[in-house]
Every structure is written in C-alpha cells, then in structure tokens.
C-alpha cells in the first residue's frame, strides 16, 4: 500500500503533463490552420470592405459557432459599420497624342476632380484660359502644414479660378498606390477635372523638345459606400462583469501590381489566438466574468471597427467591462525581445497581476508610454483598463513576405497562455480601477 501511495502523485503528475502537451499540440495545430486560411490568396489580404474581408468574417463566425460561443452582433456574429460614403473614379479615360493611357497606372483621377470632359491642344509651359493646364509638381512650393494631396487641391483650385478647363500634374514623386489611397479621404470637388500622371508620362510632358500635346480626357465618378464588419462572440456566464478580448483581422489588401499582403503576423496571428482563446475559455471553469470575443475590422482605417463598437456596443454594457485585452502582431516572439505589453499604466493593478502569472522563462517588457495606437485605444478612451500584446518591434510594416510559414507558433502559444492566465488570475478579483495616462504611443 505504501508503494502505491508513493507512486500515485507521480502518476497523476505524468498524466497531467501528458494531457497538457496534448492540449498544446491541438492549439498549435489550430493556430496554423487559422493563419493559413486567413492568409490564403482568395482572401486577397483582407482589406476592409473587400470580398476577402467578408470571407474572413464568415470563417471567424463559423469557428466561433463551432466552439459554442453565442453570437452578439447585429446580424448573428456580424456587426456592420460604415467607414465612408463618397465616390470613386468610373471608366475614366485620358488620351495623350491619341494614345490611350492606362488608368490606375499611367494616370489616376484625383479625389477632388470634377466629373467632366476636357480636350485641347496644350503647349508646354503655357497655361491658357479655357484649356488644360500642365502643372510641374517640382515647381509647387512645399508647405509643411499641408499634405501632398492638399497641395494638389490648392493648385487645382487656383487653376480653376484662373479659367483652366482641367489640370494634369506631372513629375510627382508619389507612387500610384499612394495617390490611389487619397480616395479614402472625403474632399469637395475643385470644379474641374484633375489627374496625376506617372513617371513615364511625366517624361513625355516634361521633354524640352516637346511641341503641342493633343489631350482628351473624360472623367466620371460613381457613388460608393465602404463598410466593414466586426465579428462578435459572447460567453454568457451570467456574471456582473465582462472581459473583452480583441484582435483585428483586417489587413492592407493588395499593393502595386496586385501584390497581396497576406498579413500573417499582422494580424492573422492575433486573430488565430483570439479564436483559440474563445475555444479554451468556453470550456474553462472561470465563471465570474462574461467574455466578449471581438475580431475587429477597420483597424487599418483608423481603428474604425473598434471605434464603432465602443459607440454601438449593443447588449454589452461598457460600464460593466472590467478590462480589454488586445492582441496585435504576436507571431514573431523572440527570446531576447520578449513579449511586449502596452497599456500597462491604464490600471495600477496590472504589473502585480502580470508578474504573478508570467512564466519565469518568458521575458516580459512593459511599454508604459501610453495607450498605444491599436484597437485597445478605443476602449482606453472609454476609461476602460487595457493591455496590448505584441511581439514585433516594427509593429506592422506591410510585407508580401509576411506569410504563415514565417511565424513562431510556439511563441504565439506563449502569448496566448499568458493572456489566458491573466484572465484566470483576475476572475476572483475586484473590478480593476482605470488610470489615465497623458502619453499615447
């Protein structure tokens, strides 16, 4: 009997360790599955409002449903929000010396352009009333208080008041992708057509030996409404307090030459961890908090999704939210750099809580500079304590090479476990007190 009694703790410990390793293997496998799907080519970089974002939202909803998490959006798991309403170029044409230029590559209609036609014989360096003006961007006086788009708008308004029928900007140093991104801004029409041309066309327009140019342009727009979709799940423990766990799943879509930015680290890594935390917390014995699981879209659009949620939280009472944890870029853990945690100063209780659960072999670096610039900031503005987990010092430099096979999945699991343990540690604690900071990183 003594022999059996002596061996029993060892047997139990061995069984526990074996079960834990099995659970970790399952979580690691799931993390890779989630990231691989979110980064697949058919999702085209998960740009907010694009078809790929909708595919991602459907996948996240199905995964939460399979886990047994309840829907908490306006339409099942989904919460749709408007990013912007406006217009975008539609079938615009520009012919130079009877040669048709390629829209989006050789010329781009500027967002403040009027939807009109213009044609004429244009002489270099001669700006005549009732004709198209050629404006050399290198000759535009820079203004440190204005963006490049604002400078172009100013020059277009001046030209319109002087009788120009249209303007063409050449010798600009911007990339076509940068100019196209200006359409995300809502600006008033300057009254005349305005286009930007690429470097190869600029060489033609700026040629010292050039004579007159035959130019014919037709500019038109169509109305657009860009919407994004948050995915919201809820574990209802009938508790008085709620914890929100979030990660943004949108990314930058496609760049020049239709290059897809897969966004494995930014932020399929955080989104995959969010799904796994939902699965683990659904079966956990932690019952003193309700758990809201939110996959935000619109982070790359100025935190649009999280800002919308905090203004339209529906059945989740923000006054009863204990804290919010955000995971944004957690797939690049390096032992020397460690797990970096922002928002630490949003509650005086955070250092002791984290210190009590962080593994001794895991380096933790506190970022005490402020609330940060990811989705947790929307909650910080509502006086809710926040934590922001990340592992990449560069935090979001878009790269076509940010692919699933580049991630440190064991490191992602380390961050996931730390978040889980923090939730467990706070389950029986009083509601955290919010502490405002003046600095925001």
Automatic annotation (TrEMBL):
GO biological process: proteolysis
Segments traversing the membrane: none
Molecular-function GO terms, alphabetical: metalloexopeptidase activity
Location of the Peptidase M28 domain: 230-420
Superkingdom of origin organism: Bacteria
InterPro entries (alphabetical): M28_fam, Peptidase_M28
Pfam families registered for this protein in UniProt: Peptidase_M28
Record protein name field: M28 family peptidase
Species of origin: Chitinophaga oryzae
